[in-house]
Structures are given as structure tokens and as C-alpha cells.
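Q: Start with the shorter request: fold the first protein.
A: Done. Sequence, then structure:
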Amino acid sequence: PGGLKAAGPTGGLKPAGYDNQTTLQSDLDAIFDAPALTRGLIAVRIDSLRTGETIYRRNDDKLVMPASNMKILTMTTAAEKLGWDFTYKTILDAIGPITNGTLRGDLVVTGGGDPTIVSPDGGPAPVFAEWAAALRKAGITRVDGRILGDDSYFDHDPIGMGWSWDDLVFGYSAGITALSYNENQVTVRVVPGGAVGAAGAITLTPAKSHGLKVVNRVTTVARPADAPANDRRLRASISFDRAPGSNELIVSGTIPVGANPVSQDVAVERPTKFFVTALKDALFDEGILVYGDAEEASKVIEPSMGVRTHIATRTSPPLSVIGAYFMKVSQNFVAETLFKTLGAVVKGQGSASAGRSVVLETLASWGVPADAIVMRDGSGLSRYNYVTSSAIVTMLTRMWKNDALRGPFAAALPVAAHDGTLSNRMKNTWLDAHVQAKTGTISNVRSLSGYLETKSGERVVFSIIGNHFTVPSSQIDAIAEKALALVAERR
């Protein structure tokens, strides 16, 4: 008893009896006892990947809403069950005889769930030009029939369970279909009109094919003469509304003269029709005329008849590339597409319920308790989702310890201060580039789960999920980052 003993990794000398782990836990308790969380709940689990010990836990067995941390469940299961080399196929066939350059029948596009066919810079997807070339090679320069989109690989329930009805107009709630174009959304841009009292100017990108009918209720208002450049009075106040089942998009509000443009991604109502109409327009631009309508195959009365000729197959990038994109930017549409893909590939049913079964069965085989997860969608948009922070740490630990899964998964996570949803967080701190983690945000929910490299070089896995708070989410972020900085310093 008495005297001094060497300190732990933080350096200096500590009194005899000093317990670095106990002190770390008490200091973390003090951080998570912050007044900002008085009315809220914080669920935390931090483990060492080197030793397997639990460094800190707090409410880690309590069910909490994870927001976009739910994407961790979808991504880890997809990596396990589909593999990083998995690709989607989209098939273009001609049905009917081909004579003198004319297809006397229909073109049929069969979707396999590919979420990566998009409109770059507002123009047609590159695959459409490739298909035009393939049609010419097959001797087709004119189509007397229709373009039909077969989206039967997935069910026809495009909206996730528990999605808020007032979110459905926005691109982050776009419906999930087996044949999709531009992530089933368009970008609406609003700028001031030419004078006070004039209607605002509204453009959509892509500019056509989307089927939306815009009702412009935006008014240009005067710019306050005394307003500095960053004054709130110079900001537009714009709302976007579209009733479920309607193609009518109502854009309303005010925008001051000289104000910056307002951009908003909005969901289209009929994604499959969006795809085939965009294809028809692109073929026209390539000199291939289609005289019939562009429609969903499920909605036509007369099915296509005749000999089927394969024209082309579009293969998506592999899952490793798709995962790196959607996890970095937290893209709901891609996560939900993967969710249904799991059901289609593993269970033979392209539905959310089948996808859910695959995820829960897979996680159970990893040792995640069945009652530690309530899963209603694949992206975390639903407020019906619940998970424990311990369950997420179990998933992240498995991914890290599996040599075949670790590399692409870790590469898909946002890097603190560098990219994705963490690009503006943890700058100019030790955590910069030393944290790889998935974020999550819906109203009154903030989550952060991933990996931390400490100053001693130890790798730890963590999950920090805040619920039920009413303070700005930036305060919850600050608490989580303060805790991670402390762990990085002490371990």
C-alpha cells in the first residue's frame, strides 16, 4: 500500500490503486449523464476487438429505434448471403417477328431489382444508348408495339411498413420496385421569378418521363433592403406535397428576389412507367421509333405474344460497389432494394417480409437474440424498427473478424471528417480518419455505430444510439464524439 505505480497508456504517474478501466467507466458515465439526455435514452456498447472485453455498456440490452443504423443489418446480411460479387441483371427482349427493320410486337424489359440505373446529369441512362445499339444490331429500327416493364420480381407493395405518410413525397421515401430508374425520384429546382409577385420558376430533372404534374403555387417576394447576405429573410420557404396515389405535385410558398435556388428530391408515383417511358424517349433520340405506349406489364390487358428474341442484358456493379455507395450516403432506396432482393434470392419471394426472415435467421445464426431485434424495413426509415446496441456490436464484430467480409464492409462505412455522412464531423480531432461508422437520423433519434482506432493502436467496436431527446441532434453528436475521444485517449 502507498507509494506510486506506473500509469497506463495515458502516461504520467498515478496513485497506487488507480484502476484505469474503472475510471474510464465512471468518466464515460459522466459524459452520458449530460443534461441533454435527461429526458432521453442513450444505449451504448463498446467492446475491444483485440481482447473481446466489454469496455463500457449502458442500456445496451434495451430496444431502441436505430434510424439508419438498420442499414447495418441489411448490409451485413447481404454480404453474408449474396456475397460481395453479387450483381443484378436487367433484360431487354423483343417479342414478335422482325421484318424489314420493324419489330411487329413489343419490347419487354424484365427487372431484377437493379437500383443503379440512373440519369447522369439529367440525361438518359447510358444503358439506354447501349440498348439502342443492340436493337440496331438485331435489325430493329422501328417498333410497332409497346415497351412493357415487367417488375414482377418484387411484390407490388412499394412502401415500407411504418413509413410516415408525410414523408412519401420525398426522394428518401421513394417506392421500391424491381424495375427502377434514377432511384425512382426526380430533383425539383425552384428559383425566383422575374419580378415581385411573379410565380417562381420550377424545373424537374430528369425533365421528362416522370409523369408528375406540377402545380406551381410559389410566389416571388421582395428582398428586404436592409438584409445582409446571410439573413434568414433571404431564404425561401417552399413546401412540396403529393397525395399518395396521385401524380399531382404541389409546390407552394415564397422565394425572395435574388434568393438562392431551392432543390428537393421527390419520389415519382409510378416507378416502372418512369423507367419504360424514359427508355422510349431515349430510343426516340437514338432514332428508334416506338409507336405503342410505354406501360407496366402488369397493367396491360393484352399480353405480349410471339417469338421472344433476347436483345441485351445489363449487369450492375457488384455488391461491394453498391454497398460502398449506399452506406456512405445512407441511401434508403438501395437499402430497401437489397432487403427485397434477399427475400427474392434466398426465399424466392421479393418482399419485405421474406427479406426480414432472411435477416433475422442470419443474425440468429450469429448469436443475436431473437428478441433483440424488431425489423420492419431495411433502411431504418420506419419508426417500428427496434434493436439493441449489443446486437449491433455483435454484427460489427462478426464482420470485422471474417476475413472474407471485413474489407469491403469497412470500406463502405463513412470515415470521420472525410466522406459520406461523417464528412463534416470530428474534424481537427484525433477521431479524424480514426472512426469508421454508420450514422442514423430520424426525428428524435441519433445513432452512430462502427469502429474506432485508439491512440495506442487498439481497435474497438461501438454502438451509440440516442432516443427520445428534444434537444438539437448536434448535442447528441457532441456527446457521442466526446465519449469516443475519451476511449481513444484512455485505451
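Q: Next, the second protein, separately.
A: Sequence, then structure:
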Amino acid sequence: MTVSAESTLAGRDRLRTALMLPLGIAAAVFAALLPLARVVLPAQWMPGTVALVLLVLAAGFLARRAGLAALAVTLIETGVWAAFMMLAFLRDTALLWIIPTAGTADEVMQLLATAAEEITYGAAPLRAGPALAFLIVASVGLLTVIVDHVVVTARMPLLAGIALIAVSLIPSIVVPDDLDVVAFVLLAASILFLMRVDTLSRQAPAARAATRGAGIPATAVGIGAVAVVVTLVVAPALPQPVARSLPGGVNVGSGIDATLQLGDDLRRPREVEVLRVRSSAPLPPYLRATTLSTFDGAVWLPDEDETAVLDDETAMEPVSVPADVRVEEYTTDVSIQSLSSTWLPMPFPAVGVSGLEGDWSTVPYNRTVVSDGARTQDQDYEVTTQVPRPTREQIRADVAAPDGLSPELTQLPDDLPAIVEDLAIEVTEGTTNDYDALIALQSWFRGPEFRYSLDAPVEDGFDGTGAQAIAQFLDQKEGYCVHYAGAFALMARALDMPSRIVVGYLPGSSTTDAIERETVYSVSSSQLHAWPEVHFDGLGWVSFEPTNSLGTPTSFSAALSLAGPDSGGTEAEETEETEPSPTPTLLPEEEQNEESGEALGTTSGSDDALPALAVIAALVLLLAAPAALRSVRARRLLLAARRGDAAAAWLVVQDTAIDLGIPVPASDTPRTLAARLAQSHGAPEAAMATLADALERASYAPSGTIAAGDHDALADAAAASSAALLRNAPVARRILAVIAPRSLVMRPGSAFAGAGTHARA
């Protein structure tokens, strides 16, 4: 083969390798973004993102082919990014569609503020408006510029891989979900591909040809396959964190958690409208998501009964009560505004649902509706309910006995604090029937001794519903709905009455809108609620409202029943035995502030920053990990040097040189490298001579020729030389050496280390 032919082939080879890097970067960026598509619907941002990524990488490729410096390449890529963002999102405020003005800056700030609100208060999956699309496209574009620089210019694909992995994890941190296998495999494959191409690009053509056999590619494929298998097999078996979700996949941006961890959701500083509801009932009903019947001493667990197809005739059978108990039938229309869940907010007891889109099933045991794939977002549906309306005498004659029911409905932990049962007996002393005993409990909780508070539980460490938390709540008499509901349910069980907890929403606040003469009520995220139910043999489940200052307390009169939280019944005609009932909405703001310090779901503080802080912390840890590992390695080497290990002392200097991009080729002898580091890179000549002498004696002289008294001097020389190299390097290179040390993946004498980046050339 002629020299010309060889040169042509070499040129083609270099071109192919240079082209593969931006293609690999594009694949890796897109793979990292796949999990985001589950959180933010891709229709509005994906096309712009794809276009911008390809334009940035194409510009960088062409600039490098033109022989431009690395800084110029990055500036060109940044210019392409800026021009695209101007043309796509900001052209109305720019001169000639591309030249920014003062109005452009204002528009950017407005878009960022709007996007922040959409993220903070929206429900996943979000529909990206112009603001959120702007934020995503701009962020991905900048990420592409950075990754391109790190991979192609800095030659550190591993660092870029860490950054991309961090980006791919953000959606999972914010909205916990199952492993996205496809995204994981594609991202892993893309990172392996980048590392492989980077390796090839550093080799001479002959060396590249030699490594194109089956060995290295097969190894890479094997590593990837093992990683995939381990992830798929091991990950599901690992302990999973308690997700802010309902069983079956509830994942609600506005906040709902069937594990009764409602504190974070209730402490949101700003309310979001979750749904709208109107009903033919005299009062709007409470809306339940699910019920919790099992208590293990630490947490209440959601019911997991078998489901039936919603269209099945037996899915929701008519309500069965004694013949002399009046039953009222109502219809309730619900329009979901901002709630993404697989559980449907429902009035109780439902006997029919219509208007749903997607596949939905019902849990006959508790008359809830659930789906394995459909979501509540944007659903509009009508629910028919049959509400028993017993008189006070009828419910007093009924008993709350556990006969024929699941034992879990009366189960109490062995270590139940004595205060629970003692207070249950004390408060209900003198009552002659189960209903009066439960009303006594309800009235006691809603009395002056208790105060509604979202802050006190957190400050005092009982932000939960475990037995010990409930005992602390009963002692301090301050808490929010989950404490009231949990305490009421446990005290009912202590009296041998079957009980459970319901998670859902309060009826909401009336609006000025009306449809078919029915007032429309707005239900906000702050009206997330939990309340207890007790089972009566004849009437079924009866709701109670113990939470102080909130909702409608349950009571019945001789003439007309006043239903509790779920019934939506009319207000009772008061008798001397019937307690007055407030409307089933929140107290006025000023009244709330006096009684509980805050309205439901609002506090002076905010926990909305926690997801963002978690993401930031994760990124910081990921970025700090290489520096930490490098520091540990340096300390170990210096300790070895103080024990007389000359090779360890020499490695300290070599590692620092590699981190700074200084070539450390295998062809350099210790004397040669020591002289070059002293002459060209600011290392102290005396220290370098000490290290070279010690290394030569350790390599060629008989053992023990290094005196024990010289060990400290050896370590000091290594430390001084390393510090001098760092001190004399450019600031940017020094910072990069600290946060992304190349020596963790490059060994002295390797092809990578030998090439260096000529930091001071």
C-alpha cells in the first residue's frame, strides 16, 4: 500500500472516529432524558430539545474539523444554543428575531418564574407550557455543550457519564416510580460507547486496527450485560423507600399519601386546586381515595382487596340496611383539575360510576375505584351514592361489634401504650351504647383541650401515626388530621369496636359557579384529609370527624339524620341532644389563625424545597465523589511513603501530573520526568531529586538502603512536589484536577497518561 493510500485511510479513520463522538453524546443525552418524559409530557419540549442537541453537536463537530481551538468551539456551541433559544422562544422581544433586548431579559425571568410554579405546584405528568418547555430545552442545550466539552475537549467521558446519570435520576427522585429498564439500558450502552470511542480516538490508526477484534468489544458488551442483569434482578429485591403514593401507583403532584405521611403535603405554602365537585346532596360530600384497615404498630396499611370490573353488575351492589332505615340517593359530579392518581376520589357509599375514560375497577369491600393504567388527571365523572339516614334511636340500637369481620379491623399492637386504652375508657365512661361512646370521643377531640397544629408534631418528633406517636399526641394534645384519625381509630379498637382510616379530601369551598342549580365546590391540595370510620352491624361503616376545628362532626337526631363526613346529608333539626354542626368546609381564615395558627395545609414554613434540595445534594455528592476518592488515595500513598515506600511517593507526584494533564509517558525514566516537572511545571528540583534517587535505590540497590530516618523526608518531598505542581498550574486546570481527577482512571505510562493535555506547554 502506498503512503498516499495509507494517509487517505488514516484520514477516513480519524473522520469516522471524530464523528462517532458527537453521535454517542447525542445518544447519551437522549437516553438520560427518557425518564423525564414520564414526568413531563414530551409533546411540547421533545422536538425542540432534539433539534437543539443535534445543532449544537453539529456546530462543534464542524468547528473542530476547521481546526479551531477548544475555547472557540465551546463559544460557537454556546452561540448556537443562544440563537436557537432566541428564535424558538424569545423572538418577539428581540431585534431581528435574534438580538436580545432589555425586554428579552424580562421575558426570560418571567418564563423561569412561571416554570418554577408549574414544577412546584403541578401534578405529574405535567403538560409543559411555553415556560416549562423553555426551561427544559434551554437546560438540555447547556447540558449538551458541557458534555461535549468534557467528552471531546477534556477527554473525560466517565465524568460526563456521571453527570448524565445524575440527570436521569432527577425524575425518579422527584416522582418515585419503577425502574425504567429501557432508559437504563440505553444510557448504560451510550456511556460505554462514549468510553470506547474515546479510547479509539486516543490511539494511532495501527493500534485502533489491532483492537478492533472481538476482545475489547466483547468485554464491553459483557460488562453491559452483567450490569443490566444485576440491575434487573437485584434492584427489585432491595428495600424500597416509602413512596408518597397509594397502592397501585398513586403518584400525585398536589399531594396525597395513603400511608398517612401527609405532613409534607399539608405544609405546602400555596394551595393548588385539585378538583371541582357538585352534588345533588344538601351538602357536598367528603371524597375518599382509599381506606386503611391494617395497623402493625408503626404504620396504617392500605387495603389490598381483590378488584372487580367496574361495569360488572356485582361491582357496586345497592346499600343494604334494615328496612326501617331511610336511604337517600344522590349524584355527584367530579372534575379533576390537578391530580394524577390511579385511585379515584369518590363519595361514599357509591353504587355506580359513569363517564370515566380508561380501564377502571372497583374494590367491592370499600367501594373505592382503582386502575392499573389509567390516571385521574382530566377525568370528568358522575358518581351515584345511596346514603343511609338512620335516626339517633336507630343507630343507638345498633352495635359496633367485630362479629363476622376481619380480625385486622380490631387488631392492636402488643406494645400499645397504656394511655390509649386508659383514655378511651375514661372519656366514654357513663355512656350506655356504642354510638354515644363514639360521639363522646369525637366531642372530646373537638373540645378545648385539643389544638389543630401542623407544626407541633414536627417540632416534637411525632409526625406519623405509629403507636408511640399517637401516645405522644394524646399527651400533648396538638396535631393534625392523621393524629386525630389514628388516635380515634385505636381508641375505638381499644373498646372492641372495628375501625379503619380513610384518606381523601374535605368537601371543599363553594364557588360562585353553579350548574343545573347545583353549587360548584373547589377542593384544594390543602384539603387533603384523613378521618376514621367505625363499623356498625346493621348500618355498615359510619364516618366520624374528630379533627379539631375541621370538617363536619357526625351526629344524628330523632327526626332527621345528620350524616358524617361521607354522607353529604342535610343538617339536623337540633334537639337538646343534637350538637350543632358547622358546614363541611374550612373555618374562615381569621378563625383558623386564632384556633390552630394556620388554615389546613398551610404553615409559615415550607417543605417544598426538599425535593430540590435532595436533587442538589445528590448532584453535589456525585460531583464530590471523584475528589474524595482521589484524596483518600493520596493519603494512603503518603502513609506508605512514610513507611519507606519510594514507589508510593513517586506515584503521588505522577498522579498529580496526570490530574493536571501533564504527560506521563512510559518512555520517561524517573530522572527524565523529574527534570521535566522541575523545569517546565514548577516542581522543586531538590524534592524531585530526592524522589528520583529514592526510586532508583529502591529499584536497583539492595533492600534496606533507604534509612528509616529518610522516610519522612521522602513523604515530605512527594507532598511538596505535588503541591508545587498544583500551585503553578493554571487556575482552570487546577480546579478541574481537584473535582475531576484523571488519575482515578488513568495509570502512569498508559496511552492516556502519556498523551496528557500539555497544561503548561
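Q: Describe the second briefly.
A: The chain has three domains: 10-237, 263-607, 610-755. Residues 10-237 form one domain.
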